[in-house]
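agent> step 3/5: call structure_predict on target 'Flagellar P-ring protein' (Methylobrevis pamukkalensis).
agent> reason: downstream docking stage needs a structural representation; sequence fetched in step 2, passing through unchanged.
tool.input:
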Amino acid sequence: MHRWIAIICAAILAATAAGEAAAASRIKDIVDVEGVRENQLIGYGLVVGLQGTGDGLNNAPFTRQSLQAMLERLGVNVRDANMRTANTAAVMVTAKLPPFATQGSRIDVSVSALGDSKSLQGGTLLVTPLLGADGEVYAIAQGPLAIGGFSAEAEAASITRGVPTSGRIASGAVVEREIDFRLASMSTVRLSLRNPDFTTARRIALAVNDLIGSPVAEPTDPSTVRLTLPPRFNGNIVDLLTDIEQLFVEPDLPAKVVIDESTGIIVMGQDVRVSTVAVAQGNLTVLVTEEPQVSQPAPFSDGETVEVPRSQVQVQDGVEQRLAVVRTGITLRELVDGLNALGLGPRDLISILQSIKAAGALQADIEVM
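tool.output (status=ok):
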């Protein structure tokens, strides 16, 4: 008997721990470290080698000017020439410079057509400097493009799949300049919560302090937790971040209902609660059907064939919809089941949720996208 009781208790504890672990998240998944971020790069370049699908030089003067400037740098004078090539396209090149990227490392780049090019398939990007927000060159991009779409056309038909005017170059840029940021020498660092919340910030600080055994973490606001390097880490903040990023914390978020009216999408958080309220919904629908008929004249008469309109109008006022009572303190699942039981679509659910909020019975914020 004692053995079975011990087994049952162990199973209950294991299930409880599994439930808590499933609801918790690692600190590294819910915060960003101060200074550890990507930087956006942008550049303007030319793609050559297209099969007649490039920019029309008469319609894209910037492509003509760029092509002339490039050829002049290579010792070819084409100022007075009438160029008609359609194998070149002006493009914008973008990339993300990862944090702590070292000189000589490679990053991916995205290429998008700027003019009236129909497709970049088969093209090669020429040497393109990539600039940061400060105007400095941080990477150089070049290489053949990989296009996810294609376009083909004939005299009477055409087909396009995907977007043939944009593509990527895997490892297509070489980092030329590093961003100076010395994280290891910092004595304090801030953790920025991706979803700011007072409770989550305090839980992170408590978890860190429990691990270290001293008050090294302090929540300063809903989105920031400040870490102070303790003496036993030998002046290296990276060691401290490595130890705490695997800690599990259960995030706490405010009750919120997110509505996208353009697509009819409704997302409700698990803490959404509703006070006792009665809900009824009835749509007034007017259906007009046109079935025109043709009236033929009698044989051997001077009449004309005419179209006679025939219209049918039906009105549905939704009288079959009844009043439903939503009890107070119900869970999210019960709320969804109750609203679905009314046989409503997403549009009607949006109107009902907004009406419940206006009545003060919805204990959550509604955010309309």
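agent> step 4/5: record observation. The two ends are 58 Å apart (CA to CA).
agent> proceeding.
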